[in-house]
Amino acid sequence: MDPDVFRRFGHEVVEWVAEYLRDVERYHVLSPLRPGDVRRKIPPAPPGRGEPMDAILADFKEVILPGITHWNHPRFFAYFPANNSGPSILAELLCAGLGVNAMLWQSSPAATELEEAVMDWLRQMLGLPDGFRGAIQDTASTATLCALLCARERLTGFQVNSSGLGGAAAGSPLRVYASREAHSSVEKGVRIAGVGSENLVLVSVDGAYAMDPRDLEARVGEDLRRGFRPCCVVATVGTTSSTALDPLRPIGEIARRHGLWLHVDAALAGSAAILPEMRWILDGVELADSFVFNPHKWLFTNFDCSAFFCRHPETVTATFSVLPEYLKTDLDRQVTNFRDWGIQLGRRFRALKLWFVLRYYGLDGLQARLRTHLSLAREFKGWVEESQDFELMAPVPLNTVCFRFNPWKDAAAGPDEEELDRMNKALLDRVNGTGRIFITHTRLGGRFCLRLCVGQTQTQRRHVQEAWDVIEEAGRSGC
Ligand code: PLP
Questions:
Q1: HSE, side-chain direction, 13 A CA sphere, residue 180
Q2: Ligand 1 atom nearest 294 alpha carbon
Q3: Residue 168 has what pLDDT?
Q4: What is the Cα–Cα distance from 16 to 28, expressed in whole angstroms?
Q5: Which residue, among 102, 94, 105, 143, has the nearest Cα to 346 in the 3D structure?
């Protein structure tokens, strides 16, 4: 592309993004399209000849935009957020312009050294122990897989790496422990690491859906008696369904006693630890071997950006380092080569957007935004508690509220649980069908729950109020 053409369309695209961010509220939050609607508009064969940029941008608006669910809409309350911000978007643009591959120090010294620096800033912001060193991964799923592989290799003396699962390390199964509420990425990681889903031991949870350490202790003890090899425990700080907080200290003490690797999955909730008043959620984190949280969820940094920390950098590099001649450099002993910190060789220069975000907002700016989200979620929780028609389904320690429609909650008789599940599913569809808000669901204790998470950059009180209005209205119209 000619530089002048790039400049012209570059300006047009930046203009478009600026307007989009300003006017995003005008869109339906959840794309209303049906399966196949987008695909039908895309030619089945690739273009033989180049097309003008005007036509491509016109199709972006015509074909793609209607099929977008607006994650950065202030009334997006679904899943966990993937929030973004101006400084992060600008850094992404610069990254795309530079087109850097941050695989080695030599392949861009600034990318490596900035990554080391911003990861250490994050470590300090969250109050993680001094000894933790970090690398940016694409997602928490990848970081958890890395932790599981490190745990496997530490336990087997790096023999699975060298001779495979059926080789010198073969023997009784390795066991991994996580609560019943742990994210599906733990099971996926266990499968990929060759441990096997059957060797993922699901530990019971208490009434607040947090891991019960006594059950963990009992299950590890039972496994040892049966001759299994306990390998790793994954504790979740902020479970996906309800942001339940597994107690790290007792879990860490059990892990230490039995030589288990403790990995902490704080994908969403880790961000909250930048608030001094929320630090308690990480009490005991000094007992962890590794830790992950996603600035791409709740720290205004564009997807993808997942911060993976480990207190044993040498175990990480011993697990992942494979050094062919063509990747060797004279400086290998003096520098960090992040290719040895994970699965992929080529790596995006993600540190730049974190640097922009952390500098632009500063710690106090980030803290103020998270405090707003937490207080809005608390306010929403209060509305649910006061309502005659809805009830709370789990504690609300952070920014996520699980609740359901149940006007019969205080009545002597009402619909059975299956009928309540069905009514709440129908209510969810009605609410999301309005296009005004987007919330999702989960199951807790087997029951279908509505789930609202406050975490978008532009979300204000009026948006949360509107969500409650839409939900109440849908409840009334369903009666
Ligand atoms: N862990 C928890 C607790 C999560 O809630 C999620 C996603 O929401 C993940 C892991 C997976 O995150 P990612 O999409 O970064 O792999």
A1: 14
A2: 15
A3: 79
A4: 18
A5: 102
> What is the residue-wise DSSP string for 67-91?
G---TT-TTB-SSS-----HHHHHH
Query: Cα 13 vs. chain centroid, distance in angstroms?
Result: 28
Q: Which of 83, 187, 234, 240 to mutate to test the pocket of ligand 1 (most atoms within 8 A of CB)?
A: 240
Q: Among 185, 296, 301, 306, which residue has the most ligand 1 atoms within 8 Å of its CB, making it the best to mutate?
A: 185
pLDDT at residue 433 greater than cutoff 60? yes
Angle at 471 between CA 468 and CA 475, to 5 degrees: 135
Q: For ligand 1, which residues put their CB under 6 angstroms from it?
A: 80, 139-141, 183, 185, 236, 238-240, 265, 267-268, 294, 306
Q: Which atom of ligand 1 is nearest to the CA of 269?
A: 3
Kindly state the tokens that stand for 376: 């809005």
Res 479: pLDDT: 52
- Give me ligand 1 centre to Cα 232, in Å: 18
* Residue 293 identity: F
Measuring CA to CA, which residue among 249, 325, 330, 239 is closest to residue 282?
A: 249
Please report, in angstroms and rounded to a whole number, the separation of the first and last CA atoms in the chain.
59
Centre a 10 Å sphere on the Cβ of residue 106 and count the other Cβ atoms it contains.
Answer: 14
How close is the Cα of 445 to the center of ligand 1, in Å? 21
Cα–ligand 1 centroid distance for 455 (angstroms):
15
| Tens-digit pLDDT profile for residues 112-164 | 999 999 999 999 999 999 999 999 999 999 999 999 999 999 999 999 999 99
**Predicted confidence (pLDDT) per residue in 375-397, tens digit:** 999 999 999 999 999 999 999 99
Separation CA 229–CA 209 (nearest Å): 27
Q: Which of 263, 268, 290, 308 to mutate to test the pocket of ligand 1 (most atoms within 8 A of CB)?
A: 268
pLDDT the model gives residue 170: 83
Whether the Cβ atoms of residue 244 and residue 449 lie closer than 8 Å to each other: no
Joined tokens for residue 274: 């930048």
The pLDDT of residue 477? 87
Backbone φ and ψ for 289, nearest 5 degrees, come out as: -90, -35
What pTM does this model have? 0.97
Identify whether the C-beta of residue 42 lies closer than 8 Å to the C-beta of residue 430. no
What pLDDT is attached to residue 129?
96
